[in-house]
Design brief:
Strand 1, helix 1 and strand 2 (24-28) form a beta-alpha-beta unit. The strands form two sheets. Strands 4-7-6-8-5 form a five-stranded mixed β-sheet. Strands 1-2-3 form a three-stranded parallel β-sheet, with helices on both faces. It contains ten helices and eight strands. The protein has one domain (2-185): Spore Coat Polysaccharide Biosynthesis Protein SpsA, Chain A (Alpha-Beta Complex). The protein is 45% helix and 18% strand. It has helices spanning 11-17, 35-40, 54-64, 83-92, 109-125, 138-144, 154-162, 180-185, 187-202, 207-214, and strands spanning 2-4, 24-28, 45-49, 69-71, 77-79, 97-104, 135-137, 169-177.
């Protein structure tokens, strides 16, 4: 599942990197650029529409998926080679869910520290985020309640529920992430904002309010 909103410049790369998944579902949240046209040009891609918001869009994609394993890929991300085969190997080995290592598409040690820190978050706290290409058994996804139809923190909430079934596995395969948000706001400022939003969420601030702060 690939949730998108105005990702015309990146959606082709995301789709082509996920071909090995077998079924690719692009869920559009109201794009006003050429995203839908580009995605629809691929014969093997199912394009559906939903209310805007990654939680809503990924939930819609999961409901439309007929596969036993679900993989969620953000529209500005790309899977590296062998990612899908490594996911299947992990599932066949008895893993219920997990994520991939990140590779932010930018040079500099600041980005490498971010990648390392996000990997440790999965290993130590069992918390995977949406831009880490979360994957899981479809049955476990549904039993956990799946993604909530909220605008932000949908990945945090789902990870917490999935931890009750098992600890996530962090695979060696990578997902490449566009660095635009860090370029736009700066690495330190963006990271502090992300931490602040997570803290506010823990304190009970609603996802809708957090989404407005994030934008």
């Amino acid at each position: 599942m690939i949730p998108v909103l105005n990702e015309a410049s990146r959606i082709a790369l995301a789709i082509e990197s996920a071909v090995a998944a077998g079924q690719v579902i692009v869920v559009d949240g109201g794009s006003t650029d050429q995203t839908v046209e580009i995605a629809s040009s691929y014969d093997h891609v199912l394009v559906i529409h939903s209310q805007r918001g990654r939680g809503c869009q990924m939930a819609a994609g999961a409901n439309a998926c007929e596969r036993s394993v679900l993989l969620f890929l953000h529209g500005d991300c790309q899977l590296t080679a062998n990612a899908c085969s490594n996911i299947i190997a992990a599932i066949n080995a008895g893993r219920l869910w997990g994520a991939l290592r990140q590779r932010i598409d930018a040079s500099g040690m600041r980005y490498r520290f971010l990648e390392h820190g996000n990997s440790l978050r999965v290993k130590w706290f069992g918390m995977a985020f949406g831009d880490q290409a979360m994957f899981m058994l479809a049955d476990i996804y549904r039993e956990s309640g799946g993604f909530e139809s909220i605008l932000l923190m949908e990945d945090v909430r789902l990870s917490r529920r999935l931890r009750k079934f098992s600890w996530p596995v962090l695979l060696p395969s990578q997902v490449v992430i566009d660095a635009r948000r860090w370029h736009r706001h700066g690495v330190i400022r963006q990271t502090l904002l992300n931490w602040k939003l997570q803290l506010l969420h823990l304190l009970g601030i609603s996802p809708d309010q957090l989404e407005r702060r994030y934008r």
